[in-house]
Structure formats: C-alpha cells, structure tokens
DNA sequence: CCATAACGATCAAAGCTTTGATTACTCAGG
DNA sequence: CCTGAGTAATCAAAGCTTTGATCGTTATGG
C-alpha cells in the first residue's frame, strides 16, 4: 500500500489537506470535515492555478496578476470609470487607484476626467495597452486550456455548474462584499 | 425575460464572466471559451470565499489570512522548520520569514534555532497562539459550513473530486511550482 | 582535509492590499 | 442660494508578496 497515514514529516502541499482533515476531526469532533476539505481544496487549486498563470504567462510579459485583471476589464468594456473597473475586477477603489499609477507609468492605461462628473476618472487602454492585453490573453487562454484539458467536456461543465451554485448560494450573498 | 445580453453598463461582478466569455469569443474566435469560463469562475468564487473568511472571521480576531495559514499549519503539525511551514502553507520562505516577524511580535509564534542544523529555524505556537488558532478555526469552520451548505452532500463530493482531479492534472504538474 | 557547491534564513527593493482619513465635487432640502 | 449629506478618487500607514542578493552553515568530491 502506498497510502499510509503520513506523519508530519512526509507531508507535501497536496497531502496536507487529508492530514489536516483527519487531525482536526479527532481534535475537534464538532467540525464539519467535508466543508473543511472543500474549502482547503478549492483554495489550494486556485492558488496553484493563479501562481502558474502569473509566473508563466503574465510576469514574463511585464504584467502583474492584478494588472492583467484591470487591463482585461478595460479591454472588454472599453473606457470606463475607475469605480466600475473596481467593481468588475473585484478590487477596492483604492487598490485600482494605486495599481493604475503603475499601469499609467508603463504606458498601458490612461486617465482622464469624466465630462458628466468631475469627481470621476475615466480609464482607457492606450494602443500599447490594447496590444499587450491582446497577446497576453492569447497566451493566458492557452495555459487555461492546459489546465482545463485535464477534465472531460462533461466534467468541466459539471465543475462550472457547481462553482456557480456555490457563488450564488446564501453564504456568498450574506458575505460582507467589497464588490 | 430577465436575461438580456447585458451591455457594459449593467454588469456586476457575477455577470461579468458571461459577458467576458461572449465578447472574447467574437473577438478572438480561436480561444477556448469553456476553459475561460472555468478559470474565471474558479477565481471569482475563491476570491469571494477568501475575502469573506478573512473579513468575517480572521481580521476581527486579529489575524490576517496568511497569518491564519501559518498558525493553522503549526497547530496541526507541531513545531516545525520554517522551510517546511513554507512548503505546507504554500508560501515562499521569504514570505514566511517576514510574516513570522509579525506573528512573533504579536506573541503567537516563537522562533528557535534547530539543534540538528544551525541554519534552520524551528517555529512553534506559543500558548496564546494555540488558544487563538483553536478559537479562530472553530469560527472559520462555521463559516465554511455556511458556504458548503449551499450544495448537497453528493454535490460537495463531486466538486471536491473534480478539484482534486484538476490539482493532480498535467498542467498542475508542469506548473512552475513554488511549493 | 579542504575547496566548492548547495542550502536555510534573512534582507532589500518594488509592488499590491487593506482600512481609514482627506479632498473635491454633486445633489437635494430648506 | 447655500448648507449639509453623500460620493469619487486619492493619500497614508501598515502589512504581505515577489525576486534576487547576502551571509552563515552543511555536505560533498577530489
């Protein structure tokens, strides 16, 4: 058998989930082990995925992951208020403001004052920004395909459906939202 | 009908995924829309979940999300080398080092030199640290249950299985790993 | 035995994040 | 009008992240 109840010394990032669930269950019997396993696994898969995309696709092309997210939104929607970009990219307004300092310095995004409201700032892609995000997204999607390719067509649909259900659920609705 | 093909102005964090997939598909027909939808959804769900856990559970108790992860590992494994904590918590060694400065200052973790290797640093929970993480994790798990409760028992198992498959897949294996 | 490579932790610089001011502007009621 | 509430962006302080350099310790091959 290869599946021994690994002690702390043989653990790695993957097997840690199983170890954590077992250990916690004996220590605090009242906890819900299945919920624990779900959240731990979800977090670890997503972290690995984002780390891979950022380090393999975006950083080599001069973008950070947050920078990519902002360019992506602007690429799809066209010029848009800073506030809306924050909402759609899932960042705070302050974070967008700070991030756009970098993107503007790098010549990828430009700021301009909105006509209808002088408090608002309109963000748009520069030509260089559009060029960057177009190529960057192509590479991004290739890498996405490599990940998604592990699952069958049916499995992918199932997974997406379950994630959407989770997102639409009551806990998500109650959640203190920034979005 | 409520499902109109929302333009950029009616979008929110949720409906953005659908909008992005449609728009990108017409613009770059070569991309794999299903892979795109999977990665976007996975990232958005996980971000919302982590944001909720951090803001509703951990921050109010004086822990950051990364701080929680480190305490959690030490709580389960017992005293452990800094390098191993980094591997199991999915952070770089430098990040652990910086983070432990804060945790040590707050009296939750203590550092000591390893006997067998004078380069290595052994991290352990203080009594206050153990107390903190025990209570913190109980609240964390309650919130996890609220999220997981959206899905049926069978759906939870299916979702966990698919996430594990994704994690075990070839793309994950190729991925430039920090872990 | 020793030179050199490998390794563990930390530091340094740059970037992104958060919350909580602050500043500038808009809007509605009196 | 014009005052006060609300809103958009930015700033400030503190924290976490990354990569790459440095320093000390350990392991190894000649």
> Which chains have the largest interface?
A-B, 81 and 81 residues
Q: Assign the CATH architecture of the largest domain in chain A.
A: Orthogonal Bundle
CATH superfamily (homologous) name of the largest domain in chain A:
Winged helix-like DNA-binding domain superfamily/Winged helix DNA-binding domain
Instruction: Identify low-pLDDT runs of chain A.
Output: none
* Sheet with the most strands, sense and barrel status of chain A: 3 strands, antiparallel
CATH C-level category of the largest domain in chain A: Mainly Alpha
H and E string of chain A: HHHEHHEEHHH
**Structural class by secondary-structure content of chain A:** mainly alpha
As a whole number of angstroms, the C-alpha radius of gyration of chain A is: 21 Å
Separation of the first and last Cα atoms of chain A: 48 Å
On the 0 to 100 scale, the average pLDDT of chain A is 91
How many strands appear in the DSSP assignment of chain A?
A: 3
Shape of chain A: elongated
Q: Main sheet of chain A: which strands, in order across?
A: 1-3-2
Approximately what portion of the residues of chain A adopt beta-strand conformation? 5-15%
What does the model show?
2 copies of one chain form a homodimer. With 179 residues, chain A is mostly helical. Chain A has 2 domains: 12-61; 63-164, Orthogonal Bundle (Arc Repressor Mutant, subunit A), CATH 1.10.10. Helices cover 64% and strands 7% of the residues of chain A. Chain A contains 8 helices and 3 strands. In chain A, strands 1-3-2 form a 3-stranded antiparallel sheet. In chain A, strand 2 (109-113) and strand 3 (121-125) form a beta hairpin. In chain A, helix 1 (16-27) runs antiparallel to helix 2 and helix 4 (82-89) packs across helix 5 (93-105). The longest helix of chain A is centred in the first third of the chain and has 26 residues, at 33-58. Chain A is elongated and about 60 Å long. At the A-B interface, helix 1, helix 2, helix 3, helix 6 and helix 7 of A face helix 1, helix 2, helix 3, helix 6 and helix 7 of B. Chain A binds a DNA duplex (30 and 30 nucleotides) through helix 3 and helix 5.
